Amino acid sequence: MLPPANVGERPRTGPVDCLCLIIAGRRDMEGQPPSAVRRSKAPLRVKKQPPTPVERCSDSRGRLSLQPQYRMCRMPRILISGASGLVGTALVTALEKRGDEVYRLVRREPRNAFEICWDPMQDVPAELVSGFHVVIHLSGETVAGRWTERKKRRIRDSRVVSTQNLALALAKADTPPQTFICASATGYYGNRGDEVLSEQSASGQGFLAETSREWEDATQPAAQTADRVVNLRIGVVLSRKGGALKQMLLPFRLGLGGKIGSGRQWFSWIHVDDLLAAVLHIIEHSYLRGPVNMVSPNPVTNAAFTKSLAEAVRRPAIFPVPAFMVRLAFGEFAEEGLLASARVVPRKLVENGFRFQYPELRRALEDLLNRPLEAMS
To answer: Which of 27, 72, 253, 300 would suit a FRET pair with 226, their CA atoms being 20 to 30 Å apart?
Structure first.
């Protein structure tokens, strides 16, 4: 299904389209003849309204742009893939709560006017993705589980091929977005021991690092028309609704938790609420571009994470899982996922003024485990 007709059309530029000013004194002049208005000796004053989120305007290249104005003319349109996943579901809710008009790319038959059918493994028609302020691409096969060659191909293609197809469509769109945000992962850095890793750090070795490099490179066609491209290098997202934490809760609550391997490998995590807030921060701040590490400023070792989680559920964690057992059960994923060490820090977010609500693991776990599930993102 295509967006409404006016979404894909190139907006007309001009002062009338983007000028949203309130002329003071207009209320006093209502009901007067035009001549009375023209003869008024009162100076013309412009009354500024408080800044509002965004206005739908266009730049010299015909792109929709998000610019603070005195009054919002139209709701911003945002297109998102992966909207049914853990992060995507929560992000759609957060965007809609702040008044954005959110469209979803789906692979099934659309159920309403805000769903657009696409096949991420095939060429994407440019008209499907034309006319949005921001496009956010979150689709991707889960990396968890034992890796077979078929599984690895799905992991790579669901990221790299889908991103290539979407980025090429954005490059051809009549009205391309100002911002293209695409997921990536801290797997980009590989297994790096105790090295502190920022966005300027080099990529590592291994399947996940190679896939992440290709994933980020696949966004480049969109840079030809979008004002900026942002690659979200996402760490382990903590949420009770899914992901790693949900899988760990049952064994830990049964007192069967324990560190994995030596426990010295670094664990770069982020509370789901901070992840959502960081994405909104990126949308609103155009100087953030390129790779952005989406992790807490305080990574912990696996042993420290194990201890904190055990304390949070008030159970002992006395059943460590030896490295050889992890390798036996998960093969290559054990080496690159469970036993790998990545001490990643969010340098760009911190330097650009983003404030984490849950910078410390203990506070994050307390919130996630004590807040009612229905109140969570």
So the answer is: 72
Q: pLDDT tens for residues 271-289?
A: 999 999 999 999 999 999 9
Contacts of 370 (CB under 8 A, 6+ apart): none
C-alpha 42: how far from chain center: 50
C-alpha pair distances (Å), 260 with each of 4, 196, 267, 311, 319: 51, 21, 11, 17, 9
Give the angle subtended at the CA of 198 by the CAs of 180 and 288, to the nearest 5°.
Answer: 30
In this structure, are residues 335 and 324 in contact, taking their beta carbons and an 8 Å threshold? no
Residue 199 near residue 233 (C-beta atoms within 8 A)? yes
**How many helices (DSSP H) and strands (DSSP E) are in the chain?**
13, 17
The model's pTM is: 0.81
pLDDT band at 27 (very low <50, low <70, confident <90, very high): very low
For the domain 56-375, what is the CATH superfamily, name and number? Answer: NAD(P)-binding Rossmann-like Domain (3.40.50.720)
Q: Which residues contact 28 (CB under 8 A, 6 or more apart)?
A: none
Give just the sign of the alpha carbon dihedral 117, 123, 126, 131: positive
- Distances 152 to 114, 140, 332 between C-alpha atoms, Å: 32, 12, 10
| Tokens 């997921």, residue located | 183
Q: Could you tell me if 158 and 173 are in contact, meaning their C-beta atoms sit under 8 angstroms apart?
A: no
Judged against a pLDDT cut of 90, whether residue 190 lies above it is answered with: yes
In 10 A of CB 51, how many CB atoms?
11
